[in-house]
Amino acid sequence: MRSKVVFEEDHVEKTGLQIRAELYWYSKIRKHGVDRAPKFLALVHDEEGDTIGLERIYSEPLPSHSIEAIVYEIDSAVRAIGSIPLYIAPPDPYTLSQIVASNMRRYSYLFEEESSYRLMRHLEEPATLASLSSVASFSHGDLSVDNVLWDGGAIFVDPLYDLYFYSSWLDDVAAFMTSIEIGLMQRKWQEAEFYASLVIALEEKYADQSLLPLLRVCRMIRSIERIEDEEVRREVSVRIAEDIRRIA
User: Fold this and answer.
1) How far is Cα 186 from Cα 163, in angstroms, rounded to an integer?
2) 204 or 152: which carries more pLDDT confidence?
3) Domain locations in the chain?
4) pTM of the prediction?
5) For the chain, which has fewer Cβ within 10 Å, the N-terminal or C-terminal residue?
6) Do residues 113 and 144 lie in contact, with contact meaning Cβ atoms separated by under 8 Å?
7) Of 167, 176, 156, whose CA–CA distance to 86 is shortest?
8) Which of 128, 127, 105, 129 is nearest to 116 (CA)?
9) Nearest of 176, 193, 168, 184 to residue 239 by alpha carbon
């Protein structure tokens, strides 16, 4: 369950079952001096549960920034958050293959059996699991383009960090990129050329990260349940099948 957001004059109040996890995330990055989130104002306990108060951020439109500046900001932010120490051992990367397998079973009508088999076999290879472990880190957990605000720099909101699920700064990059790609398929923005160019710039930035294509495929599969339009779902599934053929 995601949080409910209530806008006040000078701050944002959020309520819901996700509050404790979000409070942990906001507190942790502040503790380590990473200035990439709204300031935590208060935690209120009431009969309806917990409420978190956050500084209100007035976001600038993404296309008002240069692509070079956006790539720099995203890279700096995910690496800064990824450098925050983990106090427990990183979750087993096998948890990633479990959720991917679950989504592919749930939407099996979208995927050919051969594609599903090839991806799962690749995800569970010892070499792949070792590579995933090598980039495991603290992260945002749900870094879609909608969860990045711009106020003189990148500000991250609505974290979905789970102590017991695989996380990585590189997976945050994958989430950001795939959310833009899906947004383009949904014809979400008038500035489609700008967003397409941003994806290309990010691909160039992370050309040396061999795991990124795999993480992007996994993110697309994990995002299918959020897509309401069946035609777009099928378009995404075709893209997933093409990517699986390239990487697995």
Assistant:
1) 32
2) 204
3) 4-55, 62-247
4) 0.93
5) N
6) no
7) 167
8) 105
9) 184
Q: What is the pLDDT of residue 1?
A: 43
Beta bridge partners of 49: 46
Cα separation, 128 vs 197, whole angstroms: 29
Which band of pLDDT confidence, cut at 50, 70 and 90, is reported for residue 3? Answer: low
Average pLDDT, stretch 208-233?
96
Q: How far is CA 79 from the centre of its chain?
A: 14
Residue 152, Cβ neighbours under 10 Å: how many?
7
Backbone Cα Rg of the chain: 18
Distance from C-alpha of 239 to C-alpha of 161, rounded to nearest angstrom: 27
The CATH number that domain 62-247 falls under is: 3.90.1200.10
**Helix/strand/coil for 35:** coil
Residue 161 · residue 25 · CB < 8 Å: yes
